[in-house]
């Protein structure tokens, strides 16, 4: 939309600043609660388990007046489904690396899921810091703690804010409300 003015126009910085103000004003007038209710009404039933978790995370964020939704994801699908329900708060998509082996060769997933989520509304992708903890639940907690610190540093939330976290521990999916320290 701005490529002509910002690439070859006389006032590219001013054009971007004004368009930013227009976008902020337009988004502030949206009724996110009504949008969410309409999305739920139009979603075919039965929902898939992942779709149900995503909509529940948004509903929880709305009810708890959370300032942020944190999604730990490997491929980005869960975070994209949360974004589908247009929450009024940003979604921190924490891409957790996957380590795989085939006897002799070890490989780790790259940042592709984080890059792909840049085009979705409300998603702010970051790469998870690794954890050498022994169990899945311990490493999840370490990654979640580091993600909340990163969110505070980015100005997405502040100490004392409620944050909704969506992640897996083993085969179970978990939605929880965390208070930022």
TrEMBL record:
<keyword id="KW-0630">Potassium</keyword>
<dbReference type="InterPro" id="IPR015795">
    <property type="entry name" value="Pyrv_Knase_C"/>
</dbReference>
<dbReference type="GO" id="GO:0004743">
    <property type="term" value="F:pyruvate kinase activity"/>
</dbReference>
<dbReference type="Pfam" id="PF02887">
    <property type="entry name" value="PK_C"/>
</dbReference>
<feature type="domain" description="Pyruvate kinase C-terminal">
    <location>
        <begin position="51"/>
        <end position="170"/>
    </location>
</feature>
<dbReference type="InterPro" id="IPR036918">
    <property type="entry name" value="Pyrv_Knase_C_sf"/>
</dbReference>
<comment type="subunit">
    <text>Homotetramer.</text>
</comment>
<dbReference type="GO" id="GO:0000287">
    <property type="term" value="F:magnesium ion binding"/>
</dbReference>
<dbReference type="InterPro" id="IPR001697">
    <property type="entry name" value="Pyr_Knase"/>
</dbReference>
<protein>
    <submittedName>
        <fullName>Pyruvate kinase, cytosolic isozyme-like</fullName>
    </submittedName>
</protein>
<dbReference type="GO" id="GO:0030955">
    <property type="term" value="F:potassium ion binding"/>
</dbReference>
